[in-house]
Fold this sequence. Notes:
This protein is of the alpha/beta class. It has a domain at 1-111 and 261-367: 3-Layer(aba) Sandwich (Isopropylmalate Dehydrogenase), CATH 3.40.718. It contains 12 helices and 12 strands. The strands form 2 sheets. Strands 2-1-3-12-11-4-5-10-8-9 form a 10-stranded mixed beta sheet, with helices on both faces. Strands 6-7 form a two-stranded antiparallel ribbon. Residues 14, 18, 74-77, 90, 93, 261-262, 283, 286-292, 298-299, 302, 340 line the site of nicotinamide-adenine-dinucleotide.
Amino acid sequence: MPNPSILILPGDGIGPEVMAEVRKIITWFGDKRGLQFDVSEDLVGGAAYDKHGKPLADETMAKAQDVDAVLLGAVGGPAYDNLDFSVKPERGLLRLRKEMDLYSNLRPAQCFDALADFSSLKKDIVAGLDIMIVRELTSGVYFGEPRGIFEEGNERVGINTQRYTESEIERAARSAFELAMRRNKKVCSMEKANVMESGILWREVVTRVSADYPEVELSHMYADNGAMQLVRAPKQFDVILTDNLFGDILSDCAAMLTGSLGMLPSASLGAPMENGRPKALYEPVHGSAPDIAGQGKANPIACILSFAMALRYSFDQGAEADRLEAAVEKVLADGVRTADLLASEGVEPVSTSQMGDAVVAALDASL
Ligand SMILES: NC(=O)c1ccc[n+]([C@@H]2O[C@H](COP(=O)([O-])OP(=O)(O)OC[C@H]3O[C@@H](n4cnc5c(N)ncnc54)[C@H](O)[C@@H]3O)[C@@H](O)[C@H]2O)c1
Ligand SMILES: CC(C)[C@H](C(=O)O)[C@@H](O)C(=O)O
Ligand SMILES: [Mg+2]
């Protein structure tokens, strides 16, 4: 059997910085746990634009289709903000998601005990928090047609279209219900059925799918109320199922419940490949963080925990994923903090690379 293959796309800004720490973790699992991966690396986003004039070369797209898992850092940055929309770094990432058909984006928000004091919310509201946002990732207003900026009379009009087919809603919903069956058996579906036809259809289809999961308690919420409830009482939720745009916003919101955007991992999953593994891309929820890029300040934990998700969902290594998550938990419990996790002045933060080293040391201690 060949080793499982991983394509690493570090991207821009802090992407390469946090990915360097994941490389250490991959090496550790090879050396100490005998988990060997065939790892290759390529360009995405602004880095790809600089070399190829587009944010994702066709050869890179083909490689991504061919590997067992893609690990991505982050894309984008001010140097690329004024580029034509068709070649913006973010389009490279959207192309990967669309062409790999990664319709189910899992964004878990877990509050580690050591950070419960640090969350933007009171400790009792977030302590023990463990929710899973399932964001539909290949459709909705991100991809609907028509889209563009057009002339209309004597002015221009910018158009994006929210569009969902029943089958697109159904497959995202099934993935949320399947996850809920392995968790606390609750799904809350969020849309705006009060003002959008796509929301009405969303609610209908999710309700229909729920009949196949009688053990799972389904509730519906308007997404604006959902945002409020997420901040008011997040522990009422187990799995939140939502569309592409609402999921983008709600997951950044959930990040702050856990302490920092630098903590939130994600897995984007598609249909099973011939070898039974799902098409998969793993990436932190955060972006390229231009304000701290190049300074060794970025928190690599979101990217490291994304690799833990890869161990669990792509490589069938649930126990090793648990080991990695426990190592992160230990490091935080020991008080190791990157700058984004520091509540008080006068405490010295560790660098990105020191945080990665601390996780490797905790992995060593787990043996
Ligand atoms: N998946 C992705 O690649 C992705 C996601 C979001 C944004 N972006 C892109 O990134 C660029 C910057 O966007 P933005 O500033 O709105 O969002 P961002 O997520 O890059 O940063 C928002 C804030 O969070 C902080 N932050 C983010 N990640 C951190 C980490 N790991 N450690 C410590 N602090 C962290 C940043 O310093 C910044 O203050 C844009 O071009 C945007 O399109 C890319
Ligand atoms: C960079 C951008 C395309 C992306 C999105 O909007 O989906 C990001 O914000 C995310 O959360 O992954
Ligand atoms: Mg986002």
